[in-house]
Every structure is written in structure tokens, then in C-alpha cells.
From TrEMBL:
Gene3D superfamilies: NCX, central ion-binding region. It comes from the Eukaryota. It comes from Erithacus rubecula (European robin). The gene is Vnx1. Residues 132-182 form the Inner membrane component domain. This is VNX1 protein.
Length: 717
């Protein structure tokens, strides 16, 4: 469910009339024929630019074929998705999320359809049931669940009145020990049969053999038996199935087991024993008659990472309880009796990941269903809420405690986000995408726009730092004469440029006005970039709403979240994000003071990259589908957002709430950022890449991490 980058083949109405390259590429594609599964313009796998452009350029010059790689045409399924993609490009934000509308069921692959199918479908040939996933079910759940059914059956038999349910539990014990290749069927009992004779040999061409023995009793006896079952047997089994359901759901690949257990608790255990039949399927007994309640063949499916609940990925759903545990544990156990600060800090940091996913989905849903003005307000207000919440919480805590380490950690996190999104995110996408695709091409023109903004933003952010290096006074904490000569060489430690000399004249008269000027110019440059991509050069980001007219094929937009629901989720997620950020900053102090690892390394790695994990996963998915342009855009947009929006907002915050945050970075941050941006632009110059270039970017990133790991902590921390 990701947008595709189209090549120069043109629209469904025919190739565009323009350059010779476009007409030649269209002719080549007409010769080879369309590759669509159903002849559908929308969902057709397209020949990537890496495959079509070389064929085109074999007979034409690079100038003629330049248009083949200078356009990014995004294909949207409907107007809502097109609006979402358009806003993503217009505002340059990182929220590349999955579809905000439901895809038509006919367009889903067979693998995805199987994920959402109910466990009541009989297959003609399902193959062997002896698989690794089924054996794993037996070891994790099957044996003790079957044993529990045997114990409940014994209790029901001892109660005498619950004997019919005892027979049912005995049959279900064998079923849940190995449910694969077996079926639980609902049997229709005629109303005229008030008394069912035991051992009736009713046979069926479907299941074969006699049906299970029916229970003989009056209406009073039946109600008494049901009461015994509801008091002694059903609650215990319901609790066991609930435990199995939750455990299997959290493991994701065992979601079929969760469905099996949930359906058993909701349907099977609530029916009278005479209405149920448990049989082993045989190929000669198909098809079955009557309603099939349960029929399972596989306990595990590795493709369940694609599973979504109401448009939300299953990983985000499973991590949501972690947020509740973090908030309860953090605010109830404030004195650290149950867990320590390290555990609470880790939980708070991990809780940021699902919350950032929900915030991104809410932003995308609201923006896709609204006009340009509303989309702009929502993106500008909540686009950076994840990172800014943590940064502002850390600065407030550092200001209250008078500890400048928090400001240094925030600077490290900003630098780590910049370096990671420039080197690690595109590099990792190149490596993983290059494993499947030998060479990948991307829109060099759009990457050039982002690179120019990145150069400008990095230069503006570090301009006050360079200014302070030139005009600041170097102050050292301790100096030793390495020679006995007073005029000899001195070895100094903990040196820094003092900007507060002469009552802070240099800082307040020169550095601070420069910081404010930069904080105004950077958002202005960002707005100019928006005008470039939104008004004057919209052809660089060409978005098409594809049409597919097939019998029985309907593509009306069915939105997962309405505007009001998305707004409610956005506000709740923001509140939870603020609480988790407060807990993270509250419990990071012992880690900073007691850890032997440099504070630089903690900020650059953990605090910088953990909130960006959902975007890294999105970039990898795009790269695997040969859509490297969007993978690169993710990293560039995050980096530009850090420099042109987050840092000016932090500077604006310090005006109204004085903190220790100043826009003067250490030399290590300056050199790492400058080198990363230069290397990234060098790699992206030719508009194509492979796994080797991605490996270079990733290796450089790890080298910088090693430098931060062995670097001493900032002075004063």
C-alpha cells in the first residue's frame, strides 16, 4: 500500500507528446506490452526507471532522455490518497504512512486475503499439517490447553448434571491438542425433537460415521446442566482462551491461533453440546453441510506483519498497551519501588514509537480529507510534535535543575537526527533495495531541491557556532606545562569558547542577534521551497489519480478514520506523548550521571533515532518496491525539518521561557553534520545508486557513532 514512482510511459490515455525520449519509451513499452495483472492502469506493476531508461538511452543522448529521470509521477488510487500524497510533498514532512482509505478487496493479493479470512473455510487440498508453526503451537499452547479441557471434563462428569458438557470438553481436549485438519460444525436440531436418543447412527456423506451421542434429558435438566457449566467450567476455559488469544496476538505470526481461541470462546463454548460436532476432515468427505464454526490448517503465517486493524498496523496496535503500562508505572510508582529509572526511561522511549505512528496517521487522515489551509495548519502544528515535546520537556527540566547537560543532550539529539537521516536512512534503504534491484534510479531533481535546502539549513544552523569560534575567547579549565620552560608548550583540558566575557557583550550584542536572524531566515527559506514545489515547479511532483474501469470494480474512497475521529486520536496521542516525554526526561538524569557512556552518544543514537523508527521502516518498504525516490525524500524531509522548523521553534521557546539552550554546537557536531551533507550530495549527484553506495553511507554513519561513543562527555556534565 505505497505510492509507485512511474516512468516516462505516460498516462492511460496514451503517451504524452513532448520529448523524443517519451515517445520512444512509449513505443518500446507498446512492443513489450503491458505488464498489468488485470489490465488495470492503477494497480499494474510498472517497469521501473532503472529498466526503461537504459533502453531509451541506448539510441538517444543524455539530454534527450533527461526527462525520463527528472519527473516523479505518483499514482494515487483516489482523490483522498492523492491529496495525502500532495500534502506530503507540499509540506516536506516525514509522515509517509500507509493508506488512509481502504483498498478494494478485489485488488488485494491472495496472501493478504488469507490474512483477513475467517477460520471457517474448508480447503480441498491444504497439504500436510505437520509444519513448524503447528509444532510451535503444540509446545506453547496445545498441550496445557488440552490438559485443562480434560480437567474441566472430569469436573463436569463428577457433577453428574454437567455430564453432557463433560463429553464436549473431552472432545474439545483432543481438538485443541492438534486442531489442524479438524472441523467444529454447528448441527441443526429440529425443534420437534425434545428428547434426543443416545447413539443415533445418523451418518453423513460429508463427515461420515455416526454423529456424537446426544444427551437425554428434560428441559429442567438441560437448564441445570447449563448452570453448572456456566459456574464451574466456562469461566476457567474463557480465561485460558483469553490468555492464549493475547499471547498469540502479541507474537503476530501466531495471529491465526488468536483467532482460533477467540472464536472458540465466543462461539463454541456458548453453544449447547448437542449443537456441536467435532470431526476430522477427510478429502472424500467434502463438501460439508451446515455451518462450519472452526477449521484451521496453519498456526503461523509469516506475512502477518502486513496485518492491519482499522488501517493501523498490527505492530502499532500491539505497542499501544505499552503506553498504558508506561504511564501507570511512571506516575503511580514515582518513588521507584517497583522498577528503577533505567526501566522507566526505556519504556517511555519505546512508547514514543507507537504514539508517533498514531500522530502521523491522524495528520495524514485530516490533511487528506481537508482543504489546503486546514492541511497546512495541521502539518505545521503537529508535524514535529513528537520530537519537540521531548526537547522542550528536557530543556524545562534542565532549566529548573540548573543543569546544562540537558541542553547538550538536546543538541546531540538534533545532530543525531540530522546525521542519521542524511546517512543511515538512505544508506540502509539503498542496501536493502539493492539486494533485490541491481541498480535503482531516483528523481535527481527533487533530491536536488531537498539537498539545496539541506545545505542552506545546515549552514544557517551552524553559522552562530562558526561565528563564536572566530570571535569568542578560548577558556581552558586546566593547563599543564609540558616543558620546564615558562615560555614552552602547555597542555590544556576542557577548553571552550567563552561568549560571556565582559558581561556577555559578545553573546548579547553579536551572537544572540545572529541566532534570531537565522531563526527567521530558515523558516522563510522553507516557505520559498514550498512555493517552488507547490506553485512554480509543480511538474517535478506530478500526482495522478488513476482510473480503473472493470466490471464489478469500484474505487470509491472509504476512509479508515473520519476527520473528527482522527482529530480525537491526534489530541489523545499528543497528550500521551507529552506524558511519556515528561517521564523520559524525569528518569534520564540517573542515566546521564551514572553511565560510563558519553552523553553525546546517548543523544545521537537513542534519543535521536528511536522516534524515527516508523519512518525508517517506511523507507525500507519503498526501497524494496524500487521506489527509492520516496526513501530518499524521507531522510531529506526529516533533516530539513530539524534545521528549518524544530531548531527555530526551540529558539523561539527560549525567548519566552529562558533555558540553557543556545545555538552554539560543539566542534564534533559541526564536523559530523557538514561531512554528512557533503557526502550525501556527492552520492546523489547522478540520480542512480546501488547497494555499494548505500554501504558507504551506512559505514560512515557507524564510524561517526564510534567517534561519539569514545568522545568525552560535554564539559560541566
Amino acid at each position: 500500500d505505497v505510492p509507485k514512482v512511474r516512468d516516462c510511459r505516460g498516462d492511460s490515455d496514451g503517451p504524452r507528446r513532448g520529448s523524443l525520449c517519451e515517445r520512444h519509451c512509449a513505443a518500446i513499452n507498446n512492443v513489450h506490452g503491458d505488464l498489468g495483472e488485470l489490465g488495470c492502469h492503477l494497480h499494474r506493476p510498472r517497469v521501473p526507471a532503472a529498466a526503461s531508461t537504459p533502453s531509451c538511452c541506448q539510441q538517444h543522448s543524455e539530454e534527450v532522455c533527461e526527462s525520463c529521470v527528472l519527473k516523479t509521477t505518483l499514482t494515487a488510487e483516489n482523490a483522498v490518497e492523492a491529496n495525502k500524497l500532495s500534502n506530503n510533498y507540499k509540506f516536506g514532512f516525514k509522515k509517509w504512512k500507509s493508506h488512509v482509505t481502504a483498498r478494494p478487496w478485489e485488488d488485494r493479493s491472495e496472501i493478504v486475503k488469507e490474512l483477513y479470512s475467517d477460520l471457517n473455510v474448508i480447503r480441498g487440498s491444504a497439504g500436510s499439517t505437520l509444519t513448524c508453526g503447528n509444532v510451535l503451537y503444540l509446545l506453547l499452547f496445545g498441550w496445557w490447553l488440552s490438559l485443562l479441557y480434560v480437567l474441566v471434563a472430569a469436573v463436569m462428569f463428577l457433577s453428574v448434571m454437567g455430564a453432557p458438557y463433560g463429553r464436549l470438553c473431552w472432545e474439545l481436549a483432543g481438538y485443541f491438542l492438534w486442531p489442524f485438519g479438524k472441523v467444529i460444525q454447528k448441527v441443526e436440531v429440529p425443534k420437534s425433537h425434545q428428547v434426543c436418543e443416545a447413539g443415533v447412527g445418523e451418518s453423513s456423506a460429508l463427515l461420515g460415521g455416526p454423529t456424537p451421542r446426544r444427551w437425554l434429558g428434560s428441559g429442567y435438566w438441560h437448564h441445570t446442566s447449563a448452570a453448572v457449566w456456566l459456574c464451574l467450567g466456562y469461566p476457567l476455559l474463557l480465561l485460558a482462551h483469553g490468555l492464549v488469544c493475547v499471547s498469540a496476538w502479541l507474537l503476530i505470526v501466531l495471529i491465526p491461533v488468536a483467532k482460533l481461541s477467540a472464536r472458540a470462546a465466543a462461539r463454541v463454548l456458548r453453544l449447547p453440546p448437542q449443537r456441536l460436532r467435532v470431526q476430522r476432515l477427510r478429502r472424500a468427505e467434502l463438501p460439508l453441510e451446515g455451518e462450519v464454526i472452526l477449521c484451521c490448517y496453519r498456526a503461523a503465517n509469516p506475512y502477518y506483519y502486513k496485518y492491519a486493524v482499522d488501517g493501523i498496523n498490527v505492530f502499532a496496535v500491539n505497542l499501544l498497551p505499552l503506553v498504558l503500562v508506561t504511564l501507570v508505572l511512571g506516575y503511580v510508582d514515582s518513588s521507584n519501588h517497583l522498577t528503577g529509572s533505567a526501566v522507566k526511561f526505556t519504556l517511555a522511549l519505546l512508547s514514543i514509537m507507537p504514539l508517533s505512528y498514531y500522530i502521523g496517521m491522524a495528520i495524514a487522515s485530516i490533511s487528506a480529507q481537508s482543504n489546503f489551509a486546514v492541511g497546512a495548519v495541521v502539518n505545521a502544528t503537529f508535524g514535529s510534535i513528537t520530537e519537540l515535546t521531548f526537547y522542550i520537556s528536557a530543556l524545562i527540566k534542565g532549566s529548573r535543575e540548573g543543569n546544562r547537560c540537558y541542553a547538550e543532550v538536546v543538541k546531540s539529539a538534533l545532530t543525531g537526527t540530522l546525521v542519521g537521516c542524511v546517512l543511515f536512512v538512505p544508506g540502509l534503504c539503498m542496501v536493502i533495495g539493492g539486494i533485490r534491484h541491481q541498480e535503482q534510479r531516483f528523481n535527481s531533481r527533487s533530491a536536488g531541491v531537498s539537498s539545496a535546502l539541506l545545505f542552506l539549513s545546515v549552514g544557517g544552523v551552524f553559522a552562530p557556532t562558526l561565528f563564536s569560534k572566530v570571535y569568542g575567547k578560548l577558556v581552558c579549565g586546566e593547563c599543564h606545562n609540558v616543558t620546564q620552560n615558562p615560555l614552552g608548550h602547555y597542555l590544556c583540558h576542557n577548553c571552550h569558547f567563552d561568549l560571556m566575557d565582559n558581561n556577555g557583550t559578545l553573546y548579547y550584542s553579536h551572537v544572540q542577534p545572529l541566532v534570531y536572524t537565522v531563526s527567521i531566515l530558515l523558516p522563510a527559506a522553507y516557505l520559498i521551497g514550498l512555493c517552488f514545489t507547490l506553485k512554480t515547479h509543480t511538474h517535478i511532483y506530478d500526482i495522478h489519480i488513476s482510473d480503473c474501469h472493470m466490471p464489478g470494480h469500484h474505487h470509491s474512497a472509504v476512509v479508515h478514520w473520519s476527520r473528527w475521529r482522527a482529530l480525537l486520536i491526534l489530541l489523545l496521542s499528543t497528550l500521551c506523548m507529552s506524558a511519556c516525554a515528561d517521564l523520559a526526561t524525569e528518569h534520564i538524569s540517573p542515566i546521564l550521571t551514572n553511565s560510563t557512556i558519553s552523553q553525546y552518544f546517548i543523544g545521537v543514537t537513542v534519543l535521536a533515532m528511536v522516534p524515527e523508527l516508523p519512518e525508517i521502516v517506511n523507507g525500507i518498504q519503498f526501497a524494496l518496491q524500487n521506489n527509492l525516490s520516496l526513501s530518499i525524500e524521507i531522510g531529506n524531509c526529516i533533516a530539513v525539518q530539524v534545521c528549518m522548523l524544530q531548531i527555530p521553534i526551540l529558539v523561539l521557546f527560549t525567548i519566552f521561557y529562558p533555558t540553557n539552550f543556545t545555538l552554539v554546537f560543539s566542534d564534533l557536531h559541526v564536523y559530523a553534520s557538514m561531512f554528512s551533507v557533503v557526502l550525501m550530495n556527492y552520492i546523489f549527484m547522478d540520480g542512480k545508486c546501488d547497494y555499494f553506495q548505500g554501504t558507504v553511507l551506512v559505514m560512515v554513519y557507524f564510524i561517526l557513532l564510534a567517534v561519539y561513543f569514545f568522545a568525552p562527555s560535554p564539559s560541566g556534565c
